Amino acid sequence: MTWTVVLSLCAMGVVGGFAAGLLGIGGGMILVPFMTMVFTSLAFPSHLVVHMAIATGLATIVFTSISSVRAHHMQGGVLWPVVKLFTPGILVGSWLGPWVAQQLNSTMLALCFGIFVFVAATQMLINAKPPAKYQLPGTAGMFAAGGVIGLVAGLVGAGGGFISIPFMTWCNVRIQNAVATSAALGFPIALAGTLANIYYGLGETALPTYSLGYIYLPALGVIAAASMVMAPIGARTAHRLPVAKLKKIFAMMLYALAIYMLWQARSLAN
């Protein structure tokens, strides 16, 4: 990698880590489109670019979530009993997500990612908060909810916050606790998804040098280092600044990234 690429990856880690700590979203939705650009510029095989971007983005959340959740825990925001109930389903869903992704070609995967990010950006922009009508379900219900969160997160390389936060808010969990708890859920999502992407990618013969399954290790190292520094700053910012205004900025960024991924899907289809 050239120094230009290294600096670009470092900048991605800074933005992704800050967003992960601030919004509890894991940062993958911001990282994946940029990594798609970088991997394309490095002439990676076109049928692997999106898969590798999603897998590498998901792997960075393993490190980001540790740093982010520590900061949220210091603020007393993480509901650990809720994390415990979600985790079994999340582990199953996060393992299946990369398997589903492997069944899709790059065009469909880029299309799915673009649509998901577009919906997430809209949710962030309008600051959608479902009315708190219910309580968190029992063990079976939490397993099912965790499975859905993990499946979608593993498929698109995200931390699952855009599903888990509204779900918890809907179930009478305070938004601050929902964000902090979502940050903690990022670790099992990322760990299971990362192991799955390594496993499912081992048989791929066209992977670039320094890849571990679908994960490109040099990009992972640079982004993880930068994001681990910024995630605690984002978490502290969530308790100090008007997050609603910052959400609008990130929403506009996500719209741009969603449009790029939809354009990428169109390009790959041709």
TrEMBL record:
It is a multi-pass membrane protein. The chain crosses the membrane at residues 6-32, 44-66, 78-96, 108-128, 140-167, 179-202, 214-234, 246-263. It is found in: Cell membrane; Membrane. Keywords: Cell membrane, Membrane, Transmembrane, Transmembrane helix. InterPro entries: TM_pro_TauE-like (IPR002781). The keyword Cell inner membrane does not apply. It holds the Pfam family TauE. It comes from the Bacteria. The keyword Cell membrane applies. GO terms for cellular component: plasma membrane. Belongs to the 4-toluene sulfonate uptake permease (TSUP) (TC 2.A.102) family. This is Probable membrane transporter protein. It comes from Massilia eurypsychrophila.
